[in-house]
Write a structure and sequence with these properties.
The complex is a heterodimer of chains A (384) and B (217). Chain A is of the alpha+beta class. Chain A has helices at 2-7, 33-49, 55-68, 83-114, 120-143, 158-174, 180-193, 208-215, 222-227, 231-250, 268-300, 306-311, 313-348, 371-379; strands spanning 25-29, 70-72, 75-76, 78-79, 145-147, 150-154, 195-197, 200-204, 251-253, 256-260, 350-353. Chain B is rod-shaped and about 110 Å long. Classes of the chains: A alpha+beta (384), B alpha+beta (217).
Chain lengths: 384, 217
Amino acid sequence: LIANDMQWRPVGSPLPASPPPLPPVPVDFTGDRSDFRKLVTRGAALELVTFGFYRFWLATYMRRHLWSNTVIDGDAAEYTGRARELLVGFLFALAILVPIYLGYFLVTIEFERWQSFASTPLFVSFYAFGQFAIYRARRYRLSRTVWRGVRFWMDGSGWAYAGRAMLWGLLVFATLGLALPWRAAALERYKMRHAHYGNLVGHFEATGWEFFKRAWGLWPFSPLALMFFPLAPFFYAEFKAREWRWWLNGIRIGGVSLDSSLPHDAFYGLYWKVVGWCLLLMVLFGLYVAGAAVLFAATGGAPASPEAIARSIPLLAMMGVGYLALALGLNIIMRMYLQRDLWVKVVGTLRVRDIGAAAEVEAKGELASALGEGFVDGLDVAGF
Amino acid sequence: VIDDPASTAAGDTGREAIFFDGSSSRRRKVVLTLADQLEIAEAGATRDELKLARWAYADIRRADSPDGMLRLSCNSAAALARLEIRDVMLAADVVARCTHLDEHRISGRGVAKIVGWSLAAAVSIVSVVLFGVPLAADRLAPLVPAPLERRVGDAAELQVKTMFGKGVCDNPAGQAAFIKLMTRLHDVAGLGATAKSTVLPTAVPNAFGCPAARSIY
């Protein structure tokens, strides 16, 4: 920690005439947890009724809640994106992806005729698409983020980013994951140097080596965590906390820098609560199914053989309803703990240094389309 | 720097707000005048030229904000210009005058519209799968060109053979029995002479039918 603090000192000698730097300001979260719970509960129910179409609206409402309750130096941020943009982005992405999937299918046939499984490398091209999507999705979100009447924005090329991500991915593969920190740092450097707040330019100061120093101790345990289930949530929570802190500490926008004191065990509770709730819901689902079967056997007639139960339409319908309720509950839990609570935990550890550098920033930058968000949805890739 | 108590006239208390003009991130303390339009002037300024903006009440919309603060935008001003009112009384005063404050929000009717369109989309997809695809399949199957079908068949056959070994069972007695069986099947099913069947050496009891009338056992 001390070593980290040393790094935030400006490198050049400060001018004697300049005023003393302002103390770092905290970032506050003022949102009400029950408001968010109502939002995601209602959203999950509507998602169910609309066969998932409501998710564009729900995602937008969740972001609006999180953004507008995040207060930096006394002023709350604002998310100006709208669900309709996400929907249009998704439809565009679909219109592009469907012919590609079709072309992929035809090319696969040609390749497979020549040599079986020769088309596997083609699958790699979808990975490139996914990386492109991640870049463009961040660009969309950033360009809808407003603070003090000035928006953030991004330039740079999604394809250039995807190219970098592919090459670094190759290196990570060749080094059995050891190069992961350097990949993360290099990709983040690209993203951040194309990020802007008004006329301020961002950059990323954290290095792969710093990330490596924070996280290398976890690397030998990764096979163990995969094999021995109870360790996995701990392992993941530990890794995520270290990654978040490293990432946040590296962010610079103009002269403004971020500083996070996120403890390494910050997410343990969250992940265990998610695991606990999931188990509870599954037990409830099991009891419900058993109860329904017993009910059916009691009312349906005498010869209640297992096959008859499995074939009964009302029973299947009841199980379907139970299954949907389970999915709904899991969605609510994920959003409560892994989006809202995680956000609040991270934001609570943040401090902004030299906020004065953002006191008089000239507005600049264009809005980005939601095509990237659509691809992220269509390809089902994670990342931000 | 902007906050200078001496320059704030006594009558301004309770009419103060924060203004961002949308072209700079500068945080301005302003005083509001609720005239025929909402007048926004730099705090402490009395002269007209220091007026920052005049917003027509009908153009004012509510923007997202934390609890305890009213944040406004204006359709006829810069898209990101924001006025933030923290005083409850003043906020209530302004809200009472802005008739279209929440017009851009999705109402209950908007949600019903989303649900309705989603249901329509779902019904359309389900009916295409249930009725459209079988109908189209019967009409389209004869139209798929034989060479394309053969290509798909070739690819699938190669994959299956890679998975289960390249060898073919050719024990004469077994072959004779197999051919007898297949001839009967062909006759009953009315398959043409193009249908080809192969036996692979594997312990897995299974049969694949590939496009272009190829079957592998």
